[in-house]
Amino acid sequence: MTAAVLSAGIVPLRPAWHSLLWLIPLSVLWLALTYWQPGIQESGVPTSAHQLAAHGLIALGLWLGLESTDLTPSQRRATWLAIMIPYTLWFAAVWSAGINGVLVTGASPIPFLPLAIFLPVIIGAPLLLLSQRVGRVLDAMPAAWLVALQAYRIFGSWALVASLRGMLIPISGLPQGTGDLLTGLFAVPAAIAVATGTALGRRTAIIWNLFGLADFAIALTMGMITAPGRFQLIVPSVASINPGAYPNVLTPAFVVPCSILLHALSLRQLRRRGQAEAARR
Q1: pLDDT tens string for the chain (281 positions)?
Q2: Which of 15, 110, 91 is nearest to 47 (CA)?
Q3: Which of 79, 87, 186, 233 could form a disulfide with 225 if both were Cys (CB 3.0 to 4.6 A apart)?
Q4: What percent of the chain is helix, strand and coil (3-state, nearest 5)?
Q5: Angle between helices 45-67 and 73-99 (to 10 degrees)
Q6: pTM, entire model
C-alpha cells in the first residue's frame, strides 16, 4: 500500500523555517546550560534519555507504519519483532560495554570502538535497504517521521561545548558538535517541508539527509585520526576526552550507526516516493 501524498496546500512550506524561531533559542539555552554545568553531560543522562525516547518513538512509528500496510496481523507482529528485538539488544549491548569500559580506545589491541561503529551499518544497511517488507512499511509511513526523529542530534552539541571548555581538541570537537547541532536544528524544518508532498519539500529532505551523513563522515574521520589507537595521526598537545569512555562512548558506538541507518531509510523512502510520483504522472 502506498500512502497518498499530501496536497501542497495542507502544510505550507513557509512555517518550516519559522520553526527555527523556537528551536534556535532552545538550542542556545541547552548549550549555555551544559557549558555552565558540564556535569549534566558527564552524568550520561541526556544521551541515555534522548536515545530511550528515540527508541520508543521508533517502536511506535514502526508499529503504526505496519498497521497502515496490507500485511496480515501475524506478519505485522513478526516484522515488528524482527526489527525491535535486535535493535533493543544492540542498544543494551553497547550500553553495557560502555559502562564496563570495553570500548575504551587504546585499552585493547582489538579496535572494539570502530567495530561498534561500522559493523551495525555493514550488517543492517543491506537488510533494511533490500527488504521488500521494509519498503512497504516505508511507503505507508509519512516521510516526515524519519526526518523529524533526528531532532535529537541537537544533543550532539556536547562535543562543541567540550571543545569550548578545552576538554576536546577543537579540530575534532568543533566540526562534530557543529554538524550535529545543525542537523538537529534543521530536522524539524526539513520534516515540515517534506510533509508538503511537493518535489521541493522532497529535495529539501534529501539535502538534509546528505548533510547529516556528511557530518558523520567528517566527525568519524577526525575522531579516528585524533583518538588514541592504531588510526591516530594527530597527537593532541593537551589531554582530551577518550571517545570510548562512558557516557560519551554512546554517541559513536550507538547514536552514530543508528542515525546513519535512519538516514539510509529516509533516503530510500524519499526515492520511492519520487518514483511513485513520476509513475503517476
Answers
A1: 444 333 333 445 566 777 888 889 999 999 999 999 888 887 878 888 888 899 999 999 999 999 999 999 999 999 999 999 999 999 999 999 989 988 887 667 778 888 999 999 999 999 999 999 999 999 999 999 999 999 999 999 988 898 888 888 888 888 889 999 999 999 999 999 999 888 999 999 999 999 999 999 998 888 777 766 666 666 666 556 677 788 888 888 999 999 999 999 999 999 999 888 878 77
A2: 91
A3: 233
A4: 75, 0, 25
A5: 170
A6: 0.89
